[in-house]
């Protein structure tokens, strides 16, 4: 399909262009400058220009991502809306689909001009039979856009604010968003409407920042509680203009995010979003090394859980090798406390989890850890008691102990698992 | 045009080598082809418990340098996870175009075939069972003796199962039992009368394992490595016989996976591949010994027969027995294959045969997944419990299976597994009667441990092309010759006219020997 993309050099645009080309689409970038190398076909497009643009007759869809810098005044907004309308009309004349990338903040009475403008454009687009995509908090890939600002902030500040009451965001990986846009462009069986694309379950903004630190930048950061009203107060004191300049306005808009109901839209587009934790990792050689490091931590934790003592390095290496050889090579997303205290894996080692779809992989790895742990000299004493005392009393106590501990952990899992699984966003089957 | 060989034998497993000996001895020019996989893998080099305690590299023979066992989580038997057997089972179904539904289909492309990994159970079919064979009984009786003496079997001089197994006169002394089995057997001798009254008989397992040296193979020294591979060669594998056959100048051996048979000008052609190379060879006679499944596929394709035929297999189950009187015992190295066998009569015409095994050589990982306990505590429990446990299996007669096989237009073999309706009830009855019988022996069946296996898991496949006095299409004559395809003989399990609950390997070997002898002297009736 021939795709025209405005804002093709931006955070989302560049990624979309890339993925679209990989899928065999023909991409024409509409932007002010030609941008980076290998951009392929390019036409000049400036959202500030008031000249009508020509859309080729064989275009399949126009994806409108461009935005003119900062919307600081009413007139900026009007200009933004009218140039979007120009593009919209030109597109519909050509017979192509018009897909407008809006925002989670879009609403008639959004606290920011940005949100109100996006909403106004949405209305025009929908009226004319165009399509709207509202992404959540976009992250991953290059450090550009808001994600770039957040990454840079986390990188440069040793102490980060943990806002309370906690604002919640609905993340979406930039690749997943690109896939969603291509799906909307390609699907013929849907009717034009608003598609909300983001994780169905919101996560705390602090958690989001925490993952940027731990998974992407691999740094430790301290979070200091900051009441959200301070930020609101700052915008009032500084006024809208200065707030926008300082980026505080964008922050403030976070606190007023309406929750989007995305599950239905994701289903209708047959999209399966990656988890936040895996999406945060860089898909590069660095990322692979990170994967392996996480796998090694997982190996140590799983093997310690089974062996009841620290496993040797060699057997940990075999675990990593096995996961790379027979599975995806991607580490499990075990809660951090389980990596520090492997005994806590007993919470997950429960039929309520291992029989679920997500738990299957955990079970495979637990089986692998068991087989590997057993085939060691340490395992020989742990599993069959070589070199240890035997005897009916000792063994009797061991059995009693195992039954009691099983009961304790089963009870713990009973209360903890539903909470954990809700967070994982999977159906709880028990 | 003359053929390249007098006889081509497809497959080097127990059936193939058994048919080959008389032919080679009679001076026939014999070619044997097989999949060429070498069964050798890494073996433990010390007695099992010592190896577990000291061998830092034990993962190499328990899991494999290539982590073989971890890629086989879903396999049905611990045997299939053993690195030494990796090459025994691999690639068979793909290479032979076999697919299955509700059926565990297993075969081998290795030299020596499935015998590289068998449980070594041996038995003679009773005279009543042999009546189904379309040949004079003495032919098979004689062949049983030849095979038993060649491969070496061990068992007691006499016990309650002497008549049932019928092999004692050719046996080496039995291999020592472990303490748990000694204890059960001592209790059995006390309660013999009442147990026999309920149809339960107990005796030593008869196995193709040496207790004394035979040729180059050494007798068992109870080192406990049976599962992972015996470096003494005490367990019979047809690969030993293959090595012996190779000493004959008129015996030839090549690697080739046979895909089809074709009638040539007064001889038969086998066509297939060696590596990636297409290959074709000719012989005056073809003996199919590729294993029941592969043989059936070749035969049905050669016959151009599309309708399905029945495949026999023994419904099977497994269970765990615990001896509280031995609770708290330390682990001891012990023999890893069947130590005691039982026969249970369910009805006049239905007997169950099973054996019990030591648990010490089996990995705990094999059990822990079945426990309703967290891994960490499951290991604790099994560590304390398994030293006083034995595992058991049982087999029901093959006529209780309901499997069907057919070839499709493309020549692939489809297997559809199932059981006769009464099988589930019979298994359940067998389970509860065994529970009672073993309780008398001081061995208690662990709750929920009695598990019936999927069809085919027994790997006692047989009877797809049964020998009959008056064969029709899809059957074989008294020399295993396929009706309608003169010169093509079926000498493996496919030709058995019945499958009892007994391990059928020795009977396959005896029948192959018998057919080989007939062909050696030029006597056979179509």
What does this structure look like?
The complex is a heterodimer of chains A (430) and B (526). The two termini of chain A are 46 Å apart. Chain A has 17 helices and 13 strands. Residues 426-430 of chain A have low confidence and may be disordered. Chain A has helices at 11-22, 74-94, 113-127, 145-156, 174-186, 205-217, 228-246, 248-255, 263-268, 276-280, 285-307, 313-326, 336-340, 351-354, 357-374, 377-384, 392-424; strands at residues 2-6, 26-31, 41-44, 61-64, 97-101, 131-135, 137-139, 159-164, 168-169, 171-173, 194-197, 203-204, 222-227. In chain A, the strands form four sheets. A seven-stranded parallel β-sheet of chain A has the order 3-2-1-4-5-6-11, sandwiched between helices. Chain A is elongated and about 90 Å long. Chain B is an alpha/beta fold. Chain B has 15 helices and 18 strands. In chain B, the strands form three sheets. In chain B, strands 1, 2, 5, 6, 7, 8 and 18 form a seven-stranded mixed β-sheet that branches. In chain B, strands 4, 10, 11, 12, 13, 16 and 17 form a seven-stranded antiparallel β-sheet that branches. In chain B, strands 3-15-14-9 form a four-stranded mixed β-sheet. In chain B, a hairpin with a 5-residue loop joins β14 (403-407) and β15. In chain B, α1 runs parallel beside α10, α1 (14-25) packs parallel to α15 (505-520) and α7 (137-151) packs across α15 (505-520). The longest helix of chain B has 19 residues, at 179-197. The two termini of chain B are 24 Å apart. Classes of the chains: A alpha/beta (430), B alpha/beta (526). Chain A binds chain B through residues 305-306, 308, 315, 318, 321-322, 325-326, 343, 346, 349-351, 364, 366-368, 370-372, 374-377, 380, 382-387, 390-396, 398-399, 401-403, 405-406, 409-410, and chain B through 49, 52-56, 58-59, 62-63, 67, 69-71, 73, 327-331, 360, 363-365, 368-369, 372-387.
């Amino acid at each position: 399909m021939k795709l025209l993309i405005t804002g093709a050099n931006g955070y989302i645009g560049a990624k979309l262009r890339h993925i679209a080309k990989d899928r065999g689409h023909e991409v024409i970038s509409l932007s002010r400058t030609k941008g980076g190398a290998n951009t392929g076909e390019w036409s000049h497009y400036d959202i500030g220009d008031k000249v009508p643009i020509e859309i080729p007759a064989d275009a399949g869809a126009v994806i409108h991502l461009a935005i003119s810098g900062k919307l600081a005044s009413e007139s900026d907004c009007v200009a933004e809306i009218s140039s979007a309308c120009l593009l919209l009309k030109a597109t519909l004349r050509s017979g192509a689909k018009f897909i407008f990338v809006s925002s989670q903040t879009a609403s008639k009475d959004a606290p920011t001009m940005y949100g109100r403008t996006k909403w106004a454009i949405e209305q025009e687009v929908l009226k004319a039979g165009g399509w709207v995509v509202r992404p959540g908090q976009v992250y991953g890939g290059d450090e550009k856009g808001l994600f770039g600002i957040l990454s840079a902030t986390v990188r440069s500040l040793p102490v980060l604010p943990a806002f309370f009451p906690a604002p919640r965001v609905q993340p979406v990986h930039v690749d997943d968003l690109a896939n969603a846009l291509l799906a909307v462009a390609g699907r013929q069986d849907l009717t034009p409407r608003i598609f909300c694309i983001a994780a169905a379950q919101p996560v705390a903004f602090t958690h989001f920042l925490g993952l940027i630190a731990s998974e992407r930048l691999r740094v430790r950061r301290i979070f200091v509680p900051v009441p959200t009203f301070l930020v609101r107060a700052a915008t009032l004191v500084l006024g809208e203009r200065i707030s926008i300049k300082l980026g505080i306005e964008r922050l403030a808009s976070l606190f007023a995010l309406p929750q989007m109901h995305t599950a239905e839209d994701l289903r209708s587009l047959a999209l399966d979003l990656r988890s936040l934790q895996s999406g945060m990792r860089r898909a590069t050689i660095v990322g692979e090394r990170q994967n392996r490091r996480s796998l090694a931590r997982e190996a140590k934790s799983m093997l310690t859980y089974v062996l009841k003592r620290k496993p040797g390095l060699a057997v940990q290496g075999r675990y990593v090798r096995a996961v790379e050889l027979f599975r995806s090579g991607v580490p499990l997303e075990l809660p951090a406390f389980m990596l520090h205290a492997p005994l806590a894996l007993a919470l997950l080692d429960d039929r309520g989890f291992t029989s679920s779809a997500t738990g299957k992989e955990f079970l495979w790895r637990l089986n692998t850890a068991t087989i590997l742990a057993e085939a060691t000299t340490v395992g020989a004493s742990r599993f069959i008691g070589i070199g240890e005392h035997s005897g009916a009393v000792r063994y009797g106590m061991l059995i009693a102990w195992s039954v009691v501990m099983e009961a304790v952990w089963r009870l713990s899992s009973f209360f903890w698992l539903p909470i954990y699984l809700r967070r994982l966003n999977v159906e709880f089957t028990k | 045009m003359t053929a390249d060989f007098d006889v081509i034998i497809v497959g080097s497993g127990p059936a193939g080598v058994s048919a080959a000996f008389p032919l080679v001895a009679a001076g026939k020019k014999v070619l044997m082809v097989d999949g060429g996989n070498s069964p050798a893998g890494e073996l433990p080099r010390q007695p099992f418990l010592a190896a577990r305690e000291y061998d830092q590299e034990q993962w190499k023979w328990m899991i494999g340098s290539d982590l073989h066992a971890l890629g086989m989580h879903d396999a049905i038997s611990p045997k299939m996870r053993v690195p030494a057997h990796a090459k025994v089972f691999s690639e068979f179904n793909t290479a032979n175009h076999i697919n299955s539904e509700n059926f565990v289909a297993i075969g081998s492309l290795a030299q020596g075939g499935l015998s590289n990994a068998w449980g070594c159970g041996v038995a003679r079919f009773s005279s009543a069972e042999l009546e189904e064979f379309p040949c004079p009984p003495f032919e098979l009786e004689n062949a049983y003796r030849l095979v038993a003496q060649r491969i070496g079997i061990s068992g007691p001089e006499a016990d309650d199962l002497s008549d049932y197994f019928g092999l004692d006169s050719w046996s080496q002394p039995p291999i020592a039992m472990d303490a748990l089995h000694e204890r059960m057997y001592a209790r059995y001798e006390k309660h013999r009368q009442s147990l026999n009254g309920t149809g339960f008989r107990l005796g030593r397992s008869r196995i193709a394992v040496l207790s004394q040296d035979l040729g180059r193979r050494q007798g068992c020294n109870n080192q406990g490595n049976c599962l992972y591979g015996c470096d003494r060669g005490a367990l019979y594998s047809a690969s030993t016989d293959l090595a012996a056959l190779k000493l004959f100048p008129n015996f030839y051996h090549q690697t080739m996976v046979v895909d089809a048979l074709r009638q040539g000008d007064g001889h038969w052609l086998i066509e297939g591949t060696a590596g990636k190379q297409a290959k074709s060879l000719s012989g005056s006679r073809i003996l199919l010994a590729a294993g029941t499944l592969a043989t059936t596929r070749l035969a049905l394709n050669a016959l151009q027969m599309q309708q399905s035929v029945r495949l026999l297999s023994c419904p099977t189950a497994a269970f765990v027995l615990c001896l509280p009187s031995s609770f708290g015992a330390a682990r001891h190295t012990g023999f890893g294959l069947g130590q005691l066998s039982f026969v249970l009569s369910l009805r006049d015409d239905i007997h169950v045969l099973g054996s019990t095994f030591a648990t010490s050589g089996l990995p705990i990982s094999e059990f822990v997944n079945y426990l309703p306990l967290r891994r960490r505590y499951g290991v604790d429990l099994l560590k304390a419990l398994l030293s006083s446990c034995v595992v058991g299996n049982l087999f029901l007669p093959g006529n209780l299976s309901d499997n069907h096989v057919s070839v499709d237009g493309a020549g692939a073999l489809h297997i559809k597994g199932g059981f006769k309706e009464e099988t589930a009830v019979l298994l359940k009855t067998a389970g509860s009667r065994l529970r009672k019988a073993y309780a008398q022996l001081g061995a208690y069946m662990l709750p929920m441990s009695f598990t019936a296996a999927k069809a085919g898991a027994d790997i006692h496949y047989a009877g797809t092309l049964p020998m009959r006095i008056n064969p029709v299409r899809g059957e074989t004559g008294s020399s295993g010759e396929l009706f309608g395809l003169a010169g093509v003989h079926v000498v493996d399990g496919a030709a058995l006219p019945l499958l009892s609950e007994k391990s059928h390997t020795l009977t396959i070997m005896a029948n192959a020997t018998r057919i080989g002898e007939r062909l050696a002297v030029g006597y056979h009736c179509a």
